[in-house]
Amino acid sequence: xTTKLKGVVFxxxxxxxxxxxxxxxxxxxxxxxxxxxxxxxxxxKCTGGDERFAMGRLxxxxxxxxxxxxxxxWSRKKAVAYRRLVSESAKAMPGAVELVCSVAERLPVGLAxxxxxxxxxxxxxxxxxxxxxxxxxxIVSSDDVPKPKPDPATYAKAVDGLGxxxxxxxxxxxxxxxxxxxxxxxxxxxxxxxxxxxxxxRDAEWHLHSLEEVTLEDLINLFxx
Length: 225
What we know:
The protein is of the alpha/beta class. It has helices at residues 20-31, 39-45, 51-62, 68-89, 96-104, 117-126, 153-162, 176-184, 216-224, and strands at residues 7-10, 109-112, 138-140, 169-173, 188-192, 206-208.
């Protein structure tokens, strides 16, 4: 019996918004000159989780000793910098906004992100002139779960908010941690390989480089075929 597609849950960074450079720049401002890791290192070793994971990993790689109070200082500075930077240069991933809006016309859509809720709000205020505000029926950020990706809680809570069974839901994510989170929550996954290559997303059932020119019908055929 064919399993019907009844909902889609999107990751945000690297799937809907081209925000990894923005996050990196904001983190650089927050952590200061002691943080000496490159953007390439950030992408390969520090993405796919929440900002605590990213900044902790960058601190470790840079030899910076820190405690919870310093992390909180970094976090506040990063939030301010990200809000400013994303307002100046928010850029959607190719085809993402169009796909989200078209899927939302027929199916419930959710967002499962490792970003903080303040970052989600800042991005959606300006991305594509605010077209995504109010579109998602379920939004789960790193603030909403005890453990971020790769723990399954982010995707599990997003699917629960849609009111559909995980086996009837497709996750669209671009990081190994995101794919792991979705798979362990019971979803099947379309891995986006714009940043990470297919081998690092091998647990995803399907792979695409971009959502450009992908339609809801394509997703249904992929999922139900």
